[in-house]
Each structure stands twice: as structure tokens, then as C-alpha cells.
């Protein structure tokens, strides 16, 4: 299938040009979101095997849509010149590597700003561009930055820390990359001066893990890993019902009163331990273990749907833990238009998600499936002013790879 070369006009980022050099998840997901919101995104792959995402069966199609693929040896002398021409009229350049890699290869922020003073440059690494040299240059993946940040230590059981999945560290960082890029663009529009952003993935995870971290910093408190429950409150967590699991978050005065009555402990309400204005059922309270045991007993004999309906009617946040088949069958998701079908570059049908969130005036869209590695190399270079002969010489020299 021949892919469209001209991006249609759409979305809140329609006038934005983004170039990125990264593999797998964090940076590419951020760029995929920008592409779905209307940005013109060029994906720089190496001239060897390309992005490692291509080894996956399905997610590559979902997270590399709306993009152009240029296979370029950007660290070679000729490749650097191609890159500089590519970035001369770009708004954003994002790279992901060990800290300092691009500067060591001679591609510094100052060099990039010499050809485009307004460029927003985003460096994404596990441990940052500065600091202890051994940490700056350390390889990093989602799991290892989760381990370093202390976020992993807050999840799992008392006996075993566990990494939240799938790849939560990468995907949370995608949103930090996206938001910091848009923040920098806002300032560039005011000042006319480019910005350089140092995204250390572990720091993003520190930021989202500080809820309990500050308890330790200020009072020396370390809450135990909660498993399927909350660290310090009753009736919050994932519970087993007769036919599945339900997520509960029981909080608030009327909610607590109803819960105690429902599980057969109504006599506790209005006592000194659980006064009539009690909004939180603390695990440190005298009857906490009894409340948890009675709640588990109560739920074990009831179907998820019945508990969900009853608790929701009493303003308790209660939700069935949805498995994939449940999601596909869920009417609300269908009514919201969550699912989207499109064709791959090979003409095969593909099922995935639509574009989120929903912009009322300038909606996003999917205009292009994932291209083959280097599919757009010749086209993009031609747009930069390279003649067919020059492109052919670059391909012959291995600086550029063009898929057929």
C-alpha cells in the first residue's frame, strides 16, 4: 500500500514540526500523541535493524501511526548535515540515550541552535545529563528506573517489591516529555529563544511517588508495601467477590456508615473509635482488622455486579476489575468511540484505540499507518532540497536507508 505523504490539516498541533530519535516506548509514545493531535512527526531510525519496537507483533502499529520514518546514520559526518537541515525549520527535537551521548558525538545544543535558535531540544535518559558520571552514563530501562526511583519499593507485597506494568515508568514519562515540550514551546513563542530540557526518567517517578515519600522525609515514616490494599486505610483496594474482583475506595462519612452497616458492623458507628463524623477508616484504628475480615467475608458471597450497583447507589466508588474481554464488550466504551479500526501499510486490518483526549474544536485523527523502516527517507530529503542524485549517493554510502 502506498502511504499518503501530505499530512492533512487537523488538530491542536497542526502547525508543529517534530523530529525524534529514540526507540521503544517513552519518547515515541509522546511523539505519537503529538502526531495524533496534528503535529508533523518524523521518526529517525538507525540504518541497521531500526527501532526495536519493530520486533513486537502489534503495539508497533498502535504507537507509530501518523509518522514518517527516515533511516539515517545521524552520527556520521554526512548524516549530521542531513540532521541539521532537517532541524532548521523544526519546532522540536527529542532524543533518548544515555546522558551526554549526543554531545559526545559532537551534536550539542549549541550546534542545533546555530541552525535553529528557536528549537526546543529534549534530552531523555534514565538518570539525567548531569550528576555522578557513572550514573549519567548508565543504561536504563523502565524497570531499572522504577527500581532506582523508589517507586517500585512502594508496590508489591511486604515480602516482595513489584514493578507496576505494563511499562508504567515509560508511559508516565511519555506524559512528562509531552507536557514539558509543550511548556517550552509556550515560552519560546514569547521569547524567541530555544529551550533545552533534561528529562531524567527516575525524577519523573520520584515526582509521582512523593505521596508517601514526604512522610519519610518529614517524619521518618515508611509505610509497608500494601499488596492489593491501601497502605493505611481500610476498605480501599482490590477485593475478591464470588465471580471476580472489584476495586473499592470507601471514603467519606456517609460511605463509611453504610459500609459498616452493610457488612454487619453497624454497631461500631457512633462509638469513640468511629464517631459519626468519621470520614476515614484508618488501619491504625482498633477494629481495622475486624472491618477488613468482615468486608472480605461479605464480598466473597456476592457477585461483582451486585456489589458495584449497590455500593455505587450509596455513593461509594466501586468498580469491577475489567479484563480485556470485559473492555471489548463494555457499552460505554462503544458509545464513546474508544475503538478504532484502520489498515496497516500492508493492507491488513488492525484494531486499536482512538485518539485521546477529545478536543471539541480541533479533534485529532489517524491519517497514516506505521511506515516501513526508512519508507520516507527519500521524500523527506527531497523536501529538504536534496536532489535525486544527492539522495542516491547518500543511500549508496549507507548514510540513508530507503525501504522499497
List keywords for this structure.
alpha/beta, 3-stranded antiparallel β-sheet, 7-stranded mixed β-sheet, 404 residues
**What is the count of β-strands?**
12
What general form does the structure show? elongated
> Uncertain segments of ≥5 residues (pLDDT<50)?
none
What is the count of DSSP helices, taking H or I runs of 4+ residues? 17
| Biggest sheet architecture | 7 strands, mixed
**SS-based class:** alpha/beta
Subunit organisation of the chains: single chain
The fraction of residues assigned to DSSP E strands is 15-25%
Radius of gyration (CA) equals 26 Å
User: Order of strands across the biggest sheet?
Assistant: 6-5-4-1-2-3-12
Mean pLDDT: 97
> SSE string, helix = H, strand = E?
EHEHEHEHHEHHHEHHEEHHHEHHEEHHE
Helix content: 25-40%
Model description:
The chain has helices at residues 26-36, 59-63, 77-87, 101-104, 109-115, 133-136, 142-149, 168-191, 201-208, 210-219, 253-262, 288-300, 304-313, 324-329, 331-336, 377-383, 388-396, and strands at residues 17-21, 40-45, 67-72, 92-96, 120-125, 195-200, 236-241, 244-249, 317-320, 339-343, 349-353, 400-401. The protein has 404 residues and is of the alpha/beta class. A 7-stranded mixed sheet has the order 6-5-4-1-2-3-12, sandwiched between helices. Strand 7 and strand 8 (244-249) form a beta hairpin. It is elongated, with a radius of gyration of 26 Å.
Amino acid at each position: 500500500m502506498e502511504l499518503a505523504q501530505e499530512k492533512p490539516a487537523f488538530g491542536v498541533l497542526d502547525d508543529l514540526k517534530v523530529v525524534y530519535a529514540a526507540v521503544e516506548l517513552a519518547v515515541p509514545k509522546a511523539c505519537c500523541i503529538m502526531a495524533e493531535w496534528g503535529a508533523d512527526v518524523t521518526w529517525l531510525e538507525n540504518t541497521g535493524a531500526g527501532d526495536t519496537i519493530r520486533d513486537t507483533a502489534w503495539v508497533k502499529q498502535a504507537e507509530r501511526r501518523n509518522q514518517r520514518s527516515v533511516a539515517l546514520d545521524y552520527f556520521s559526518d554526512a548524516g549530521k548535515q542531513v540532521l541539521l537541515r532537517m532541524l532548521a525549520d523544526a519546532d522540536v527535537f527529542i532524543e533518548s540515550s544515555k546522558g551526554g551521548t549526543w554531545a559526545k558525538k559532537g551534536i550539542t545544543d549549541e550546534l542545533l541552535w546555530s541552525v535553529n535558535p528557536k528549537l526546543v531540544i529534549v534530552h531523555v535518559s534514565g538518570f539525567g545529563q548531569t550528576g555522578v558520571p557513572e550514573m549519567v552514563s548508565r543504561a536504563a530501562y523502565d524497570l531499572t528506573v522504577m527500581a532506582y526511583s523508589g517507586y517500585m519499593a512502594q508496590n508489591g507485597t511486604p515480602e516482595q517489591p513489584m514493578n507496576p506494568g505494563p511499562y508504567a515508568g515509560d508511559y508516565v514519562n511519555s506524559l512528562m516529555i509531552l507536557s514539558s515540550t509543550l511548556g517550552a514551546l509556550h515560552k519560546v513563542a514569547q521569547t524567541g529563544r530555544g529551550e533545552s530540557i533534561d528529562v531524567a526518567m527516575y525524577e519523573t517517578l520520584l515526582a509521582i511517588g512523593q505521596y508517601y515519600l514526604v512522610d519519610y522525609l518529614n517524619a521518618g515514616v515508611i509505610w509497608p508495601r500494601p499488596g492489593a490494599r491501601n497502605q493505611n486505610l481500610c476498605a480501599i483496594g482490590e477485593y475478591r467477590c464470588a465471580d471476580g474482583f472489584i476495586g473499592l475506595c470507601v471514603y467519606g462519612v456517609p460511605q463509611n456508615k453504610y459500609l459498616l452497616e452493610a457488612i454487619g458492623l453497624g454497631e461500631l458507628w457512633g462509638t469513640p473509635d468511629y464517631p459519626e463524623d468519621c470520614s476515614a477508616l484508618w488501619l491504625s484504628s482498633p477494629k481495622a482488622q475486624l472491618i477488613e475480615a468482615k468486608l472480605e467475608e461479605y464480598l466473597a458471597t456476592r457477585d461483582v455486579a451486585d456489589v458495584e450497583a449497590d455500593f455505587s447507589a450509596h455513593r461509594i466508588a466501586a468498580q469491577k476489575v475489567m479484563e480485556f474481554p470485559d473492555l471489548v464488550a463494555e457499552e460505554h466504551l462503544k458509545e464513546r468511540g474508544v475503538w478504532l479500526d484502520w489498515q496497516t501499510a500492508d493492507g491488513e486490518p488492525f484494531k486499536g484505540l482512538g485518539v485521546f483526549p477529545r478536543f471539541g474544536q480541533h479533534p485529532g485523527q489517524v491519517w497514516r499507518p506505521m511506515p516501513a523502516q526508512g519508507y520516507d527517507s527519500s521524500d523527506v530529503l527531497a523536501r529538504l532540497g536534496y536532489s535525486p542524485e544527492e539522495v542516491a549517493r547518500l543511500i549508496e554510502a549507507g548514510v540513508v536507508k530507503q525501504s522499497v
